[in-house]
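Blackboard transcription, Thursday session:
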Amino acid sequence: MGEIIMSYAAALRETLREEMRRDPNIVILGEDVGAWGGVFTVTLGLLQEFGPQRVIDTPISEAAIVGAALGMALAGLRPVAEIMYMDFITIAMDQLITHAAKLRFMSGGRIKLPMVIRTQYGIGRAYGPQHSQFVPSWFLQPGIKVVAPSTPADAKGLLKAALREDNPVLFIEAALLYETTGPVPEGDYIIPIGLADIKRKGSDVTIVAISRTVLDALKAAEILSEKHGIEAEVIDPRTLYPLDLKTIFSSVRKTGRLVITTDEIRSGSVAAEILSRVAEDPDTLYSLETAPKIVSSPDMPVPTPAPLEKAYMVNPDKIVNAVITMLR
Amino acid sequence: MSRVENIGIIDPSRYGEYGISKEDLMWMWRTMMLIRRFEERVVKLFEEKKLVGASHLYIGMEAVATGVMKALDKDDYIVSTYRGHGHALARGIPPRLVMAELFGRATGTNKGLGGSMHVSMYPELGIMMTTAIVGSGIPVAAGLGYAIKYRGEKRVVAAFFGDGAVNTGAFHEGANMIGLWRLPVILVCENNLYGMGGRVDRVTAGSTGFSVIHRALAYNIDGIVVDGFDPVAVYIAARKAAEKARNGGGPTFIEARTYRFLGHNLRDPQRYRSREEVEEWKRKDAVIRLTRILIDNGYASQEELDGIEKQILEEIEDSVRFAQESPYLSFEELYNFIYA
Ligand SMILES: Cc1ncc(C[n+]2csc(CCOP(=O)(O)OP(=O)(O)O)c2C)c(N)n1
Ligand SMILES: [Mg+2]
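(Written on the board underneath:)
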């Protein structure tokens, strides 16, 4: 089968469409997913094709959106709940963390929860502290799987996997990724949850890049190669929980250097989690030739003014500098 | 038991009976015109890409903030929202500070760190909090109200929120406390028919005629449904609620029936409503209506109003200049604002 060039948003939309045609148990619920088409156009046109029973415009009620999705999943439907901004998921934490993540375990493994929570983080659009948070580490909880694709193809492959998974999956998108484009395989293209991807091969330094920062890391790798003769290997974990540590460890053992990039704040980040795993693995730890480095947002709410937000965010130059400092 | 009262458009012949003076009317007109022209300028600045980020505008809803702010004292507390440009201007925050905040500059109400969605946060004038999270202001209003009651003060709290907010858990939990503890809180529901694309009747159980006033009754809070295109009516409603709260009479839920003439924000394709519907509502335009009343009833001449409008336009241009000439904070300074 061939490939089609499409945007990240379109890849998600077409995947939802394909899967909804295949599986009548799939329903979408969320704020303005229907008539509006989703504020980032991900569900545009789905109401028209599948009707209001399957594409449900909800009240502004995040706790009940996730809670209702949980109930639907208990009854054997396969809900895809949308939380418009990752910031708003705090309101649904009880349903997600204290219920969805625990029910299977508490039931002695009898309950299945085929549910997907889609959300996105909004950094880079001057929307300020309450619409820009990227907080995946809050969801590193046994019982939930967390994915954060960075390319249109990964978005498709991982969404397909999530829609065939019998566990709650938190599916994290990024506002700045929606309009990015790339080749997307046609048909039943599935990427297993829990599998990292080597986005660029290299031998001098490993850059583990999360979500949107994969784009920055790839640009940084080009600059490092062209201007400095440094070949970076860029690894996209894609799934943040459970992590594909094997792929990360073997790359680090090969390059002996590690930079991790993320739009999270440094403290308590998935990046910090990855680093702690590296530190616990003797073969990987002792293969490091220099101290590893996390390139993240600083421990500060996201500032609203565009130039300050720009200074706040990860960018290719910051990654290049981290690598060069390391290799000096 | 709580009750609901309706306050429709107040006929000018009854202004005297309600103690509405020429001065009051001129203040209301000026305030609404300032908000209208300010927001129109903001739209233009977005189109010119001089402004970026959030853009929840107040055009169409001017009478609500104007009427409520008129009824409040300088010591009263206010909780505002992401749709707060109008709240800010009606409360008397200078346009320069408001515009500079939209431009993200250090001279703005919040040094640029709040931006459009928090432009009205200004404790100096009692606007204690803004929120960009729908519904989150209502429990906070309960806390402010509790503090007033605890200290035996005469203040009131006015908490602004939209029709969509009454479906959040925060609203229900907060309203219950406010009703239960008889707190001096005015819940100001700006019912503009839609929460983003969600029309009231499609997202609210038990609404009739697009009203959400039944939410108040559930929590033993008196309701006033008021025509949100008449600043005088809104003022009378808010004045009544404020007097009651100051005298220990407890909370009131004011539902101001209004409409936003623009999209939810400037990125809204507005697929959920028709152009005809918007045009129909525009016929209720509060600014145009009050202009006519002032002229027809001899409160002011067209020339006088033109003169004031000219002043307003100059003030707005001055605010744009001021904002554009103002510096941003430096990145290092930001660290000073995380902890007290
Ligand atoms: C908890 C939460 N959910 C969703 C949003 C996204 N959102 C922003 S404004 C809005 C609509 C709010 O409608 P309403 O309360 O009627 O106020 P209006 O915007 O009409 O003034 C939504 C859904 C949000 N900011 N917070
Ligand atoms: Mg509304």
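Lecturer's comment: The mean pLDDT of chain B is 98.
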